[in-house]
Amino acid sequence: MPDLHYTPDYQVGADVPAVTPDEQAALARAFEATPSVFSALSTLRTRRIGLGYRSETGEAETFAWSSNETVTQPAGPLAFTSQADPVPLSEVEQALIAWAALGPNGVALADVPVHGGLSGLLSWAGRTIPASSNDLSVDLFIVDDDGVWVYRPEPERLAPVEIAGPEDYAKILHWFRAGRTKVADTRPDIGWFSAPEGTHNVNAMGPGQYNLNRPGSTWFLPVGDLGLEWFNMLLNSYEWSGFYLMDPDTAKPCGVDDWIRPGFLEVGFPIPVFDELVLMLHSSQAACAVQNIRLACEALGLGAWPVGSYADDMLLGAYPDVCRGLGFTFLERDPDRNPSKTSTCLGQPGVKEPVVVPSPQFPTAADAVRYVRNVRYEAGGQLSREGNWSARAGGPYNEATMQEILESPKAHIPDWAEEAAIATVEYIVAKYGCCPAYISPVRAKFSAQVHHVDTEFYETFQTGNGQSPAVTPAVRDHFANWHPGRPDPTGGAL
Question: pTM here?
Answer without folding.
Answer: 0.94
